[in-house]
Backbone:
């Protein structure tokens, strides 16, 4: 067999190899991770349960999202009913109905606790545009919850994010983030996250129950659980506006 024919056959073999056999870059992993967690629109209901030295507290919510940037959360539990969190056009706003007060959060304020939980406002409304804010490196792989995961380190490009450094474990097949460690630029641990249960929606694997621990608090943990999730539904065009937030 001539050398030319051998080279042609080799080229055809490479052409038809599965894409998964080729090396994937850190940036490609993050893009797919964001894409898997993003829907044209969504509506969900769920709960936040926090256990600390004061006891156990549970709050319920309903939430809407649109694309990578818009999200709205409204609390439905008795004590917090009507409180809202809106993220749109890169800004985050809080609304308290009793005081009819609207507050805009920026920078470090995004790390503030939501209702005394281990969740921050950034955690609950994070935009799915990770590569706009972080550079990323691929640091090997590890098995988490029986799943083969990429290990990624994300380093912030600016100070306008809640977590300067993120270390995350991303499923090689589903691109679900099973575990995360969030730190300062000097390596001080701020928060840990782990997915405990998942659900399947539109062919995607998504978190159903997530456990979060704030390293700045002692003897505290929060569980966020989704009860329902609908995707690609019709939403009011004015839902993610400041006018709607204060209505």
Residues:
């Amino acid at each position: 067999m001539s050398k030319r024919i051998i080279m042609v056959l080799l080229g055809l073999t490479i052409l038809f190899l599965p894409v998964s056999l080729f090396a994937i870059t850190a940036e490609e992993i993050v893009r797919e991770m964001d894409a898997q967690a993003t829907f044209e629109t969504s509506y969900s209901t769920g709960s936040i349960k926090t256990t600390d030295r004061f006891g156990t507290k549970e709050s319920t919510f309903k939430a809407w999202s649109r694309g990578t940037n818009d999200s709205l959360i409204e609390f439905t539990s008795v004590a917090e009913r009507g409180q809202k969190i809106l993220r749109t056009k890169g800004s985050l706003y809080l609304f308290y109905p009793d005081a009819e007060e609207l507050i805009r959060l920026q920078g470090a304020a995004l790390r503030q606790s939501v209702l005394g939980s281990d969740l921050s406002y950034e955690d609950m409304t994070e935009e799915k545009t990770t590569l706009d804010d972080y550079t990323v490196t691929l640091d090997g792989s590890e098995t988490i919850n029986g799943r083969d995961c990429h290990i990624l380190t994300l380093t912030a490009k600016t100070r306008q994010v809640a977590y300067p450094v993120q270390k995350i474990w991303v499923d090689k097949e589903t691109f679900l983030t099973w575990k995360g460690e969030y730190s300062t630029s000097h390596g001080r641990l701020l928060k840990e996250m782990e997915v405990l249960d998942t659900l399947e929606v539109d062919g995607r694997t998504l978190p159903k129950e997530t456990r979060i621990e704030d390293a700045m608090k002692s003897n505290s943990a929060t569980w966020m659980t989704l009860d329902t999730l609908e995707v690609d539904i019709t939403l009011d065009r004015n839902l993610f506006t400041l006018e709607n937030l204060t209505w």
Observations:
- The CA atoms of residues 42 and 121 lie 19 Å apart.
- The first strand starts at residue 41 and ends at 52.
- The longest helix spans residues 3-15.
